Amino acid sequence: MKTPKTPHSASDTLINTVAQAQSQETTASMNSLSLTPLPLSHTLDVFTFQAWVKTLQGGTVFQYCDQANYPSFIVQVTPLGHIEIRVNSQLLQIDTISTLGGLNDGYWHLLSITYQYHELSCFIDGDEIHLQQHSIPLTDEAKLKFSTQTMNAFDGEIVNINLIETCLTEAEILDCYLHPHQQAALIDSNLYIYPKKHTKHELHLMPTQLARQEVMLIIFNDTEYSFNKQNLNSNHFNKQLPSIIPAHERCAYMIESSSDNWPHFIYKANYQAKESVDIKLSFDILKSLTPHRSHIDLQLSNELEFDCFISQSTSSRLTAEIRISENVVTRQAKHFMRFINEVRSHIASDHIITDGQYYAEQDFWVSTGQQMLAYEKACQLFNRRLQKKPLAIIKCRSSQEVKLVYKTAVDYHLAISVRSSGHDHEGESGETNSIVIDLSSMNSIELDPISGIVAIGPGCTMQALTSYLAQKGLMLPHSTSASHALAGFIMGGGWGPWCRKYGMCCESLVQAEIVLGIGETQVVSAANKPELLWALKGGGGLSYGIVTRFFVQTFALPPSLLKFELEWNPYQKDSQQLRETTPTLRLLERWEQIILADNLPCLLGTNLKIQAKPALLQGVKPPLNTVVQAPQEAKHNCIMYGYWEGNPASLAHFIKAQFSEVGLKPNRVQMAAMGGLTQSYGDELMESWNRETIQDLQPVLNHRLAELLNDKDIQLYKNQRQHSQDLLRPAPHRVTSRLAHAQGLKQGHIALIDSLTSPQLIEGNRQLGLFTYVTLSAIAGDFYRTLGEVQKSQSAFPYKEQAYIIQYQAWWNSELQEQALMQMNSVYPRVNKALDWIDTCRDASIANSAGAFISFKDNTIPTARYFGQNYQMLQQVKASYCQDPLNHFRSRKSIV
Questions:
Q1: Where does the chain hold its CATH 3.30.43.10 domain(s)?
Q2: What whole-number distance in Å separates Cα of residue 442 and Cα of residue 231?
Q3: pLDDT, mean over the chain
Q4: Which residues lie closer than 8 Å to 626 by C-beta, 6 or more apart?
Q5: What does DSSP say about strands 92-98 and 131-137: parallel, antiparallel, or unpaired?
Q6: 849: which of 5, 26, 830, 856 is 20 to 30 A away, CA to CA?
Q7: Longest dimension (CA), the chain
């Protein structure tokens, strides 16, 4: 129930005195507004106080005294912009101060204070602020007598002071801020209005000096839609947004308020696309005399998105640049469908793999189960750890088709990926939301019998290529993996089992046919753009263009070629427990000595695979009968793989002289001829050099080798291929790498071995098909040792001086029976720790090691590290020759 409003002469006099005291300081700024005394005779139990204030210094905003001349309600702004409030009720004196200051910023603000049930709340521009409140019992002695001498006069401007005998809600206060001219109903509840408003029509109190407020919008409609205005223009604005916002145009528009829009205005406009009634656009603009309160909101249909950049916000003007575009997903979908529609007229439909069928006439997309299955299959990468979703896979059959697909993708602003066999360890050959240019069908082989140069399609696999060349008595420095295609292998350098004699495969590249950034095909060679040829020889794939043919110099196969395996500390067949006989350190040191020797030309290439094994956590007591080995004495399963030029007797002599006679007799020896009359060369490539399978070789005794080695303690096996399909099969994995210095690791041996005994690995991993190991791949040998400086400068491969590559690997789910278990596989609780082990090895401090090998890609390694001293030169080549200023030829580890 409202308290009757009866005049009281004493209070009238007091309030009038207060108002006069304030008026003396603020008459000029407040335009000498007349003062009206407060006709009240009761205490304030429930109220809302509001005033528009603008100040730089602060002071007393308002003070009300009761019948006995005691201040019942005081509001002040401190010099730091804090708000101080005191309310004296019948029982309590409540003092509060705002936690934050800053009200004295020289801009207009609506100050609102509510009081009810001894609780004070304060709002600035409709937003509640935090108060620190202190209440004490009120006695007559505690009451502060009013004194005009102690009051700090307000230094600033105040308008629209209202003291309302009701407690407004937060929503009502916000409405008062947003719509100050629509609050006529509050007059009925007013205890005090300053200055006096006699009717509800006298609600347009404003300072005399009105600043014209305006908003300038620079709108770039980057869509194919014209937008028509749906709401009528308002009479409250002198200038407004237009009736039509045209498509693909950039225009400037002004919104200007009329004189009664103070201290801010709200402008709304709704638009609808002329071409589609479902596509809508709405502007909601607040322009305030307080600059940081001004804002622009846009509401758009899902098909649209926008950028809004406010370049200017002052008391008088708000300037913003707005770009309206189709949603990126929508735009990409339209571009993709147009791309598909265009390439379909040039490329056979069965070579265009998508997850559906686009019908241009009806403008819709249809998917069938068969199409989706074919698409999912085509998306699969060799590294099954990664699952990516390209827009389409286009199987090109010629350089012309490559050019067509590439240029069409660029025309429709679509990203590209290039895939030959998809062996990239980080899956960069089939990125999500890209057009995959698949080169696997471009697998031609053309040999010039005079020069021995072979022209090879980028999709030609090592199995097909080496088998073909071996039939001609020729070979090139190939990979150990039969399923590898040539393109990524040779451009990444191309390490293989011929490396000690013929170097990396890239050293044999003499020409390349390449599609450059503008869609032009060129053949680069030593005579035409030699710098670009240099970059293709070990400078990484894709960065410089799409190579559609490689011209590689071959060499003659030796009359006798053997591949061999030597194993130490083998796993027992049934238990998979190590039979520990030989310290890893001694084997590692011996292997280094062998590859660095200059008197072993018959060892064409080799690597050493060392299996990692679990270690106890620090502080954990080992089980009974367990011997904790120091790194110097640690024993790991080790296998040396190699190619040997010579007969079995010479290989047997090498094994005895280099290992058996120095106390490093292998537990197992395997050797076999490469290829032959009944077996193609490509079928004999040794996947196990870099892979592992749970199915080990079956022990089939080879009596001829037993006689050659004359050692009954060595197990001698014939070559068996029953497990090769497991090693060819794609599987989830992760790798990382570094390289040993020219003279090997030396002091780094212990750190390397220590990294291979880790608490991050769990006992029983092997039995579940989770393999963790390191492969050391020899670079050092006759080729790079005798290579002259001029010849060294002919390729971008940066590690010609290094002894070998160190590649840490983790593989799992290689076998079909493991893959069939899907997420029910018991290996998954262990995989994350194996991946953590890879990270730990990547960051391990190993003396005399550095760099990283791009073919063993790890995206967590900075790109520059892969290319060493050649990185800047590769950047220059890309910029100078590739004609790709927007970097369409890009992946995460390509040259930028």
A1: 329-438
A2: 60
A3: 86
A4: none
A5: antiparallel
A6: 830
A7: 131
Shortest CA distance to 718 belongs to which of 595, 565, 853? Answer: 565
Q: What is the DSSP string of 90-121?
A: SSEEEEEEESS----SSS-EEEEEEEETTEEE
Tokens linked to 68: 């006995």
CATH domain 214-326 topology: Mutm (Fpg) Protein; Chain: A, domain 2 (2.60.270)
Nearest to 434 by CA among 860, 863, 890, 895: 890
Question: In this structure, are residues 301 and 278 in contact, taking their beta carbons and an 8 Å threshold?
Answer: yes
Smallest Cα–Cα separation from 763: which of 755, 772, 754? 772
Query: Closest by alpha carbon to 654, among 606, 609, 704, 603?
Result: 603
For 221, the 3-state DSSP assignment is strand
Query: At 135, is the pLDDT very low, low, confident or very high (cuts 50, 70, 90)?
Result: confident
Q: What is d(CA 109, CA 122) in angstroms, rounded to the nearest whole number?
A: 13
Residue carrying the six token digits 């106390």: 663
* d(C-alpha 448, C-alpha 672), whole Å: 30
Q: What CA–CA distance (Å, rounded) separates 492 from 421?
A: 14
Quote the pLDDT of residue 4: 36
CATH 2.40.30.10 given to domain 329-438: no
Whether domain 445-557+872-881 has CATH 1.10.1040.10: the reply is no
CATH says 9-194 is which class? mainly beta
- Has residue 150 got a pLDDT over 80? no
Q: Which range among 82-91, 133-142, 304-313, 607-616 shows the weakest confidence by mean pLDDT?
A: 133-142
Give CA–CA dist 406/437, Å, rounded: 8
Instruction: Please give the pLDDT value at position 339.
Output: 95
Taking the CA atoms of the chain, what radius of gyration do you get in angstroms? 41
Domain(s) of CATH 2.60.120.200: residues in the chain: 9-194
Q: Give, as one character, the DSSP assignment of residue 686.
A: -
pLDDT digits (tens, 9 = 90+) for 191-236: 666 554 444 444 444 555 556 789 999 999 999 999 999 988 777 7
The edge-to-edge listing of strands for the beta sheet with 304-313 is 237-239, 249-257, 214-221, 317-326, 304-313
E strands of 138-242, at which residues? 155-164, 190-194, 214-221, 227-229, 237-239
Residue 546's pLDDT is 98
- Give the strand pairing for 521-525 and 445-447: unpaired
Listed in sequence order, the DSSP H helices in 444-529 are 462-471, 486-491, 499-502
Task: Identify residue 895 by its one-letter amino acid code.
Answer: I
What pLDDT, on a 0 to 100 scale, did the predictor assign at position 697?
34
DSSP code at position 578: B
Q: Which residues contact 731 (CB under 8 A, 6 or more apart)?
A: 383, 384, 811, 812, 813, 814, 819
CA angle, corner 109, sides to 103 and 115, nearest 5?
A: 85
Distance of alpha carbon 338 from the chain centroid: 28
Assess whether the previous peptide bond of 195 is cis (omega < 30° from 0).
yes
CATH (one of 3.40.462.20, 3.90.45.10, 3.40.1180.10, 3.30.559.30) for 561-861: 3.40.462.20
- Give ranges for CATH 3.30.465.10 in the chain: 445-557+872-881
Q: Could you tell me where in the chain the CATH 3.40.462.20 domains are found?
A: 561-861
10 Å CB burial of residue 722 (0-12, 13-18, 19+) is exposed
Contact 223, 274 (CB under 8 A): no
User: CA 175, 181, 183, 184: dihedral to nearest 10 degrees?
Assistant: -170
Q: Is the pLDDT of residue 389 over 70?
A: yes
Helix (H) / strand (E) element for 712: namely none
List, in sequence order, every beta strand (DSSP E) within 498-612.
509-515, 521-525, 546-553, 555-556, 561-568, 603-611
CA 55, CA 158: separation in Å to the nearest integer?
A: 9
